Amino acid sequence: MQIHTHACIAYIVGRFISGKRVDSLYDYSRARKIDMKSIPGAERLRDFNYANWSYMSGPSRSTRLQFSCVNGMSLELRIKGNTFIGFIRENSSHFIGNIRGNTVNIYDQQQAAHFSYRLSGRAVEH
Question: Which of 15, 24, 49, 91 lies 20 to 30 Å from 77 when distance is taken between CA atoms?
Answer without folding.
Answer: 24
